[in-house]
Amino acid sequence: MTDFELVFLGTSSAVPTEHRGLSSIAVVRSGEILLFDAGEGTQRRFAEAGLGFNKKMKIFITHMHGDHCVGLLGLLQTMSMLNRSNPLSVYGPPGLLSFVRGNIRMLKFGLTFHLEVNTVKADGVVVEEKDYLVSACRGEHHITDYAYVLDEKERPGVFHPERARRLGVPEGELWSKLQHGEPIKLNGEKVYPSEVLGPSRPGRKIAISGDTRPTVKLRRCIKGANVAVLDSTYFDDHADKAREHLHMTAREAAEMASEAGVKLLVLTHFSSRYEDVAPYVYQAVEVHPNVVAASDQMVLEVPYPDEGLPRVKPAK
Amino acid sequence: MTDFELVFLGTSSAVPTEHRGLSSIAVVRSGEILLFDAGEGTQRRFAEAGLGFNKKMKIFITHMHGDHCVGLLGLLQTMSMLNRSNPLSVYGPPGLLSFVRGNIRMLKFGLTFHLEVNTVKADGVVVEEKDYLVSACRGEHHITDYAYVLDEKERPGVFHPERARRLGVPEGELWSKLQHGEPIKLNGEKVYPSEVLGPSRPGRKIAISGDTRPTVKLRRCIKGANVAVLDSTYFDDHADKAREHLHMTAREAAEMASEAGVKLLVLTHFSSRYEDVAPYVYQAVEVHPNVVAASDQMVLEVPYPDEGLPRVKPAK
Lengths: 316, 316
Description:
2 copies of one chain form a homodimer. The first copy, chain A, is an alpha/beta fold. Chain A has 10 helices and 17 strands. Chain A has helices at 42-48, 66-69, 71-81, 96-106, 161-166, 173-179, 216-221, 239-245, 250-259, 278-285, and strands at 4-10, 24-29, 32-36, 56-60, 88-92, 115-119, 124-128, 132-138, 146-152, 184-186, 189-191, 205-208, 227-231, 264-268, 291-293, 299-301, 311-312. Chain A is globular.
């Protein structure tokens, strides 16, 4: 069990195919859903995956091409049909606000919840929560396109009960405070977490590229990620098309992931021209040792770095 | 074999379910596709049904609620991705033009074909072609909502070869002209089709209601239809909801179809609250003898009136 999963809701580029819908990835973490892109059909995959339309949630749009954002309309409408009450924040490039507001007006659907649309105007931190950050990093595409990076903050180190006992801290509430990194008072003296905890432990980092060419900046943004989900539209033999249409081949994605020290590379955004996605993986593993090709409804568990590599959850 | 089929691409109301997508019906007639509504997911069902993205085609939108028109965006975009070259005309209520043009601008997709968006401003004939008419008929809903009626023009009567021979008309091109209702010249004398043909035969008529309450006007519009596909959102026990949300129960749809002399009633636009649609049919057949519940990818063949009732094509 992990409290951090990626659910791939749509993995085709541009045009849906028999088995692949348009771009969308749900990150389910500590009871919250962070949705990255919402191509047409997202609401259906979202329901199939049992994600729940009234959960705590944020949505991030990489760029304003229809195959990455049109599904937002049906998703918002269905949330309202199901009487969502929790507020929802959506983040994305310029154009998102007028797209959302314009369509809500034109299609006259009343929202049952507070919707906040935030325009991401530049690289940097987009969301800061108590225990994680989401940052945007501009890629290279025909229109403004952001990669998003989710960074968990450091967790307090491992708790050593023998040290707490030695200091005379009684088991219970005071232990719990120290375990969560809070100092306590004991007989008029302060006890600091560092006295009973090991060194703080790194959180998890995942990156989702949107549609882009490989760039030096992007490589820097995804550095050291536990998982990077990268645009991998083409096979090697269409490397010219990747350059022309500003996407990546699987090999280019693998090169960038390898140079950035990414632990697991997930390939997605597959061209509908290929029936079999196996060559994406063959071509990428020549460059990076750990590669998975995404498929619709694939679930990837992301453990903490010291608990091993992210792994695909067996299908039900 | 008939050259007139209805393909049900989406049969759920408001929210898609596991097996039902949002509203869309393709009428395939003499090589042309007439698409009625395009809810989210239509392009996918359209491709699955093998309908072809570059066919001669017209699209009719009943009303500007998202679950009936959002799929238009992905459909137009995919047509362009596949390099559609044939022009396309779309017809619908006020608001359609700004929805289509606004989104094409906001999502920046270049069309590869000529797109004509026509606003239907009042009841009456919307399209007149050589051999058929499509008319709009306003229903009763929260916003402007048109039912559409497709009326084939009368066909020339049955050809009697013995009459043609008696008049000395040689077999071949001249017979063909007479069969198609054109007068010919023979030895300086005119020969009229009526001299060699039986009485002209009625064409087929189908009606698609959109979202609406039953009304006297609508009953008049669908009069004598071979097939009427009617909004049938609720069971009897939610008749109050049908009135409140301006839809029909299956029974109300059957009453209107019965009074209008409709040959076959097809129920659709099913509420996602019910798992089993059988009660729709049980309740409707108490009022109308010929009732079918639509399902996604169901194909209905529509023969000429003298060739029997429309029939569901066995699934492949």
